[in-house]
């Protein structure tokens, strides 16, 4: 049995893996991999997958849910193109993914103003206390910074249209969707397998873009009109997302997931703070509950190889930090059980007993 702390594609519930495997072999007599996306059985899957997002996140009326392709990376472009009104857009730069969103918005001609950045300290905190001009076309931020282990603990409050890349913390905690005009997220961090990208969009912003460049696929108004079936959707990914959302709702929904996630993160941060070998470099108030970044203290840097062997031997996978930060990163997505976190904590404790 492996304990998968990987940052993405991520662990999903075992029951979801089993049902997905069954669907590959038999989905009403065909394989889910060969069924036409226009067949009523798949249309029903798409409808349910969209509806379950609304149910799980209490999405109010007046919002549409879409499953597109291209990952969150294409979401950088799609969000910018659909939200630009020909004026200025504000961005908060909290790391590699936020920087990617800034870069792609500029490529498609959006006039970007970076309102705040935590680059001065290698993105180890969430910027605070900056002004938000009231005439922005929109404000974009990244709710959870997968690589650095920082997370906005509160939604940004603003009167300007709000856009958020929620790839790595969507469905991990309750959110207030009505505060946002556009939310997007790659499926592979908490929703399903790679291949689908989720968009939750306020219907009144659809078609309001002011840009000379709008390929049909990127136009969310068209995607909405075609009920997320403008072309062949990522059939398998949407199917597994539907299975996972059913499981999420059956196990108490996002509220219960949030409680479990709080317990997991609490257990691990408590160990990091009390273990003599390890430290967190992230501002305490900005710590992510999804991606926990930590390091061996400088004076114990020589123990790296020995520690790597120890957690490998315990069946832990995916604990290595991102190549840009080094150290360790334990991703605690919804499907990771508390018992896996306990295994990691026990490994850290025992390693300290032997080496500190
Ligand atoms: C992983 C990730 C991305 C990139 O997602 P892709 O689907 O691979 O394009 C973007 N933003 C955040 C916050 C991420 O965690």
From TrEMBL:
Transferase among keywords: yes
Metabolic or biological pathway, per its Swiss-Prot or TrEMBL entry: Cofactor biosynthesis; pyridoxine 5'-phosphate biosynthesis; pyridoxine 5'-phosphate from D-erythrose 4-phosphate: step 3/5; Amino-acid biosynthesis; L-serine biosynthesis; L-serine from 3-phospho-D-glycerate: step 2/3
Organism name: Taishania pollutisoli
Binding residue positions for pyridoxal 5'-phosphate: 72-73, 97, 146, 165, 188, 231-232
GO cellular-component term (any): cytoplasm
UniProt keyword Lipid metabolism present: no
Keywords of this entry: Amino-acid biosynthesis, Aminotransferase, Cytoplasm, Pyridoxal phosphate, Pyridoxine biosynthesis, Serine biosynthesis, Transferase
Function: Catalyzes the reversible conversion of 3-phosphohydroxypyruvate to phosphoserine and of 3-hydroxy-2-oxo-4-phosphonooxybutanoate to phosphohydroxythreonine.
NCBIfam families assigned to the protein according to its UniProt record, in alphabetical order: PRK05355.1 (NF003764)
Single GO MF annotation: O-phospho-L-serine:2-oxoglutarate aminotransferase activity
Domain Aminotransferase class V as annotated: residue spans: 4-342
Gene3D superfamilies, per database record: Aspartate Aminotransferase, domain 1, Type I PLP-dependent aspartate aminotransferase-like (Major domain)
Residues with PTM N6-(pyridoxal phosphate)lysine: 189
Uppermost EC category: transferase
Catalytic activity: 4-(phosphooxy)-L-threonine + 2-oxoglutarate = (R)-3-hydroxy-2-oxo-4-phosphooxybutanoate + L-glutamate; O-phospho-L-serine + 2-oxoglutarate = 3-phosphooxypyruvate + L-glutamate
Name of the protein described by the UniProt record: Phosphoserine aminotransferase
Quaternary structure and partners: Homodimer.
Protein EC: 2.6.1.52
Pfam family name, one: Aminotran_5
Cofactor: binding comment: Binds 1 pyridoxal phosphate per subunit.
